[in-house]
Write a structure and sequence with these properties.
Blueprint (H helix, E strand, L loop, with lengths): L2 H20 L7 H27 L9 H4 L8 H10 L2 H17 L6 H22 L4 H26 L17 H31 L17 E4 L4 E2 L2 E2 L12 E4 L5 E4 L1
Antiparallel strand pairs: 1-4, 2-3, 4-5
């Protein structure tokens, strides 16, 4: 599943070798390095903010419905079992949402980028491990976000180690391209806040709308039978008006049935 990551890595090495050969006279790429980090941090920031919103408003892993609550553990896929464990504890899910949302907000600003990258690496790296353990299917996006977080953190990693591990004095080094022209300054600010408006504010409003309209389960919200929500043991089952006696190996006769608030029915055979 990581074959695309491997291909990107190989093509990057080839591209770097070709670029280095034809641009041998260049001694530094400070400006290019700066813009690559900018694109990387905004990609990570908007990604973890979106994931954070989904958990803060309990949209990603909603509280288990009646059918799921009456499903034996052995019948769950590992992914579903993990989701229901988190869905059954909504306060913890909200905490995880803020754990993803906060690093994203920190990475939107220069002064807090390093702290945000460190937190994002810890949080999203844990998400990637959980996805592997439970075969959830989002391990590659989570791994890529963690890798980008490490790339952003790498710029200050040596100085962080010198200060916190080796107990040495160190200096903060920053490179910012000069925006001498007015259109460059206003253009940078305009692009930055346009992106923040779309991916932070508008997306947040859409999540609030989904939360307030109870769009948790991504299912049609057509009302079901009034007063029927619940779990039922099937004591009598008829097919073409012929009663079928209980048989645990019967693939036709229902053993139990569950009704939800909406027009959904699940049953066990």
């Amino acid at each position: 599943i990581y074959v695309n990551v491997l291909f990107v890595f190989i093509f990057s090495l080839i591209g770097a070798a070709i670029w280095g050969y034809f641009d041998r006279s260049k001694r530094e790429y400070n400006k290019l390095y700066y813009w690559v980090r900018v694109f990387a941090r905004y990609r990570v920031a908007y990604g973890v903010i979106a994931w954070g919103y989904k958990k803060i408003f309990i949209m990603q892993m909603p509280f288990p419905n009646v059918g799921l609550l009456h499903t034996p553990f052995i019948d769950f896929f590992a992914k579903r079992l993990y989701w229901e464990q988190l869905g059954i504890a909504p306060h913890y899910e909200v905490f995880l949402g803020f754990a993803e949302f906060l690093p994203g907000i920190l990475m939107l600003f220069r002064r807090t980028t390093t702290l945000g990258a460190a937190l994002a690496l810890a949080v999203v790296g844990n998400v990637a491990l959980a996805n592997h353990a439970y075969d959830i299917g989002e391990q590659v996006p989570a791994f890529c976000l963690a890798l980008l977080s490490l790339f952003i953190l790498w710029y200050d990693l040596r100085r962080i180690i010198e200060l916190l591990v080796l107990k040495r004095d160190t200096a903060v080094v920053r490179f910012y391209p000069s925006f001498s022209k007015k259109w460059e300054r206003y253009g940078r600010i305009g692009i930055k806040w346009a992106g923040n408006f779309v991916f932070v504010i508008l997306f947040g409003i859409s999540e609030i709308y989904g939360f307030t309209h109870n769009d948790f389960y991504k299912l049609p919200r057509t009302s079901g039978l009034t007063g029927s929500k619940g779990y039922y043991q099937v004591t009598e089952f008829r097919l073409n008006n012929k009663a079928l006696p209980y048989n645990p190996e019967d693939s036709i006769r229902w053993q139990d049935a569950t009704f939800e608030d909406w027009s959904s029915l699940s049953f066990k055979v």
